[in-house]
Specification:
about 325 residues; FAD/NAD(P)-binding domain; binds flavin-adenine dinucleotide; Polyamine Oxidase, Chain A, domain 2; 18 strands; globular; 5-stranded antiparallel sheet
Length: about 325
């Protein structure tokens, strides 16, 4: 069978899913991507808020990215040419961020792909040689289905229809992360624009408004450490907000300032503990595959490499 004749459905429009979609599209495959979110981002999301009449955006997931591989270095250069990433030397000399928000590259990629937003795939079923995807708004049929969602969610989707593949993500455990998004009336007197793992409740904090192309109010994104986020996983967002704010002012030794806006988001599956030997998995007999950061490294580059690897496996028919 000429696989370029196949309809491919990808579940997940994060970095791994969209990278795979574009690479397969370049090879002539017909690809549709489904994502439960309202727009591009996944764990590279940017959350908007209106604060004192101004629109503000927070990078509440990934903070920056860097390349270790030459392939990803070249990809970042291409995004820079397209104006969707910019260097952010505050976080390291090779650190980059999406512009105008962290989801900049994903927004750019999604414009070159067929993506259905607000489409949560609830379950999969085998039908003949192909697959049926069940979303709350209807069904979609495809010859090939690729699952590019966090490990725990991939294991759940695949448990019944592809237990041998489900066993791979089922071994992965991810660390959670509570993310606090806070805006202040005035600039906080903190030297530098980020605080990196200083022990205690705060794992990372960054002056979001100081990233390139961000405008408006003084904003901070404050991440709970892995240990703190695990211990406080089932707190309400309001409780997490007030605890993280208190910890932030205590760690920075600043007098408490009431924020104009503060909201917390819980990333239940933020950072997978990677154990896999292969960067992607592909079962050509059943037409089903897996990609995601959890197969390479818990970083933007890991997700990108996994998406590329899955597309290459399919294109090579292996
Ligand atoms: C708080 C935090 C901080 C981070 N900091 C950094 C950092 O500084 N640097 C760095 O390199 N990396 C960082 N990361 C990690 C980085 O964001 C991820 O490695 C990368 O974005 C993962 O991409 P992915 O495509 O594998 O998964 P995701 O981005 O999680 O994409 C999966 C997509 O699948 C969708 N989805 C899930 N289930 C379904 C379903 N049933 N139906 C339809 N759609 C579904 C989701 O909506 C999502 O869009 C951070 C992550 C978090 C959460």
């Amino acid at each position: 069978m000429d696989r370029t004749q196949s309809d491919i459905a990808i579940i997940g429009a994060g970095m791994s899913g969209l990278t795979c979609a574009l690479a397969l599209g370049e090879q002539g495959f017909a690809v549709r991507v489904f994502d439960k979110g309202r727009g591009p981002g996944g764990r590279m999301a940017a959350r908007r808020a209106e604060i004192a009449g101004e629109k503000v955006s927070f990078d509440h997931g990934a903070q920056y990215f860097a390349a270790k591989s030459s392939e990803f270095t070249a990809q970042i250069a291409a995004w820079a040419d397209a104006g969707v990433v910019a260097p952010w030397p505050v976080a390291g000399e090779d650190a980059w961020v999406g512009v105008p928000g962290m989801n900049g590259p994903l927004r750019h990629m999604s414009q070159q792909a067929e993506v259905s937003w607000g489409a949560r795939i609830e379950r999969l079923e085998r039908e003949g040689e192909g697959w049926v995807l069940f979303a709350d708004g209807g069904t979609h049929r495809a010859d090939i289905v690729l699952v590019a969602v966090p490990a725990e969610q991939a294991a759940g989707l695949l448990a019944e229809v592809a237990p041998e593949l489900a066993a791979i993500p089922a071994t992965i455990q991810s660390e959670p992360c509570w993310a606090l998004m806070a805006a202040f009336e005035e600039q906080l007197p903190i030297t530098g624009d980020c605080l990196n793992d200083e022990g205690g409740a705060i794992g990372w904090a960054a002056r979001n408004s100081a990233k390139p192309s961000r405008t408006g109010q003084e904003t901070w994104v404050i991440h709970g450490s892995a240990e703190w986020s695990r211990a406080n996983l089932e707190q309400s967002p309001e409780e997490a907000t007030s605890k993280l704010l208190a910890a932030f002012f205590s760690q920075t030794q600043l007098p408490f300032k009431q924020p104009l806006h503060a909201a917390a988001h819980r990333w239940r599956y933020a950072f997978p503990q990677v154990q896999s030997a292969l960067p992607a998995h592909w079962d050509p007999k059943r037409g089903i595959g897996l990609a995601g950061d959890y197969l390479v490294a818990p970083r933007v580059e890991g997700a990108w490499l996994s998406g590329k690897a899955l597309a290459a496996m399919i294109a090579q028919g292996k």
